Hints:
Layout: H1 2-13, H2 19-35
Amino acid sequence: xxxxxxxxxxKIELNEIGSFSTFTICIRLIINGVLNGV
Length: 38
């Protein structure tokens, strides 16, 4: 759950900087969580 929360917060902060980069980070966090079985 922390990964999703961090991803959401990161997306808000970096929204103006670059949504694409933030979205990629979001995907990586989610994938890492799935691979870790969280």
